[in-house]
UniProtKB/TrEMBL annotation:
The active site is at residues 68, 102, 259. It is a single-pass membrane protein. InterPro entries: Peptidase_S8/S53_dom, Peptidase_S8/S53_dom_sf, Peptidase_S8_His-AS, Peptidase_S8_Ser-AS, Peptidase_S8_subtilisin-like, Peptidase_S8_subtilisin-rel, T7SS_pept_S8A_mycosin. This is Type VII secretion-associated serine protease mycosin. GO terms for molecular function: peptidase activity. The chain crosses the membrane at residues 354-372. SUPFAM superfamilies: Subtilisin-like (SSF52743). GO terms for biological process: proteolysis.
């Protein structure tokens, strides 16, 4: 099953591009590492402003699976944040190395640690990365390995899964894996792919309704010309000239693609799951949609979805619809129009509504019983009553 071709990493030193699969006996040269640090704060971080949300959460306690080409755990800015993981495509060993470099770049966007001399840092540096290798490079992944990788990530305890790869054909095994994740309260975040100018084929798993589908925008806030469009698009995030980590080195790379917009949204989901641990995956998805920087069009927009992800608003916003049911429920809320809860019709909804009404009435009665005598003691009077009238009655203030 064909997977979309990842946008090749723009390696700052001369790359030795892969020429074949990598397994127990690699038959290819790996991409050359970069040692060049980029000192400035990337435009992506100026746009999303992660330091604003970090006093509340940095994604602590959340395991984010990166279903990709592996993640190089030796990279300094990922030190201590990467688990061994699982190699699905080669069926041997761990996945905490990365010949091609794509997965390391994605993981850096999520969880790279702060480092002096650079403004490049992950959006959720408190999160932990679980690498799941579903491909060695841009040409050997399949819908089957993608499906197996999703199940492996779920079973390993990930609560957010980043998938920066797509199949352009619906596949029963992949659909079942998506449902497996949703049924276990795991949020799947997937790229919509980069072929808007090559026929805009429907991308899976992004097109499945349980998945949070992500497209790309540039510094001007407009949809990237390569970013696919469609009714299933949920959110967009920076995906042009993105700065992240090189494999096997201490330096940085710059690249573009929906592959790299997706981990910004996965990281925002990690921030929400860390700060609001009782929200279900469906509620986290809905919260990210409702708190995005909305475009000035009908929502969702086929080119921009609900808009650009907003990590701070996603963590801090108060959404009434999250409280229409008991907080401990694992069922997703019943959704009405955007931002509005739809009135419940079952016995539970009526019981909650009755209890809330009774509590409010009891509080009002108690408040009135308290305030009436208090008002007499303090000599309340009409705001328009002259002071002289009160003096003539012999009252004092």
């Amino acid at each position: 099953m064909r997977l979309f071709a990842w946008v090749g990493l723009a390696v700052l030193s001369a790359p030795a591009l892969p020429s074949g699969p990598v397994g127990a006996a690699p038959a290819t040269r790996c991409t050359s590492p970069s040692q060049q640090l980029l000192p400035e704060v990337p435009w992506t971080h100026r746009r999303l402003d992660p330091p604003r949300v970090w006093p509340l959460t940095r994604g602590e306690g959340v395991l984010v699976a990166v279903v990709d080409t592996g993640v190089d755990a030796t990279v300094p800015q990922l030190a201590g944040r990467v688990r061994p993981g699982t190699d699905v495509v080669n069926r041997v060993g761990d996945a905490n190395d990365d010949c091609y470099g794509h997965g390391t770049f994605v993981a850096g966007i999520i969880a790279a640690q702060p480092r002096s001399g650079t403004g490049m840092v992950g959006l959720a540096p408190g999160a932990t990365i679980l690498p799941v290798r579903q491909a060695n490079g841009p040409s050997d992944g399949t819908a089957s390995t993608l499906a197996r990788s999703i199940r492996v990530a779920v079973d390993a305890g990930a609560s957010v899964i980043n998938v920066s790869a797509s199949s352009f054909f619906p596949n029963e095994e992949l659909r079942a894996a998506v449902e497996y994740a949703a049924g276990r309260d795991v949020l799947l975040v997937a790229a919509v792919a980069n072929e808007a100018q090559q026929g805009n084929p429907v991308a899976y798993p992004a097109a499945y309704p349980q998945v949070l589908a992500v497209g790309s925008v540039g510094p001007d806030g407009r949809r990237s010309e390569f970013s696919e469009v469609g009714a299933y698009l949920d959110l967009v995030a920076p995906g042009v000239d993105v700065v992240s980590l090189s494999r096997a080195g201490a330096g940085h790379l710059v690249d573009s693609g929906t592959s790299y917009a997706t981990p910004f949204v996965a990281a925002a989901a990690a921030l929400v799951r860390s700060y609001h641990p009782r929200l279900t995956a469906a509620q986290v998805k809905r919260r990210l949609e409702l708190t995005a920087d909305h475009p000035g069009t009908a929502l969702p927009d086929p080119q921009l979805g609900w808009g650009v992800v907003n990590p701070y608003q996603a963590v801090t916003a108060l959404l009434a619809e999250e409280h229409t049911r008991a907080p401990a429920t694992l069922r997703p809320p019943t959704l009405g129009p955007v931002g509005q809860p739809q009135a419940g019709t079952d016995d539970e909804d009526r019981a909650i509504e009755f209890a809330l009404t009774a509590a409010v009435l009891a509080g009002l009665i108690g408040l009135v019983a308290y305030l009436i005598p208090l008002g007499i003691r303090r000599d309340w009077r009409s705001a328009g009553e002259p002071e002289d009238d009160r003096d003539r009655r012999g009252e004092s203030g």
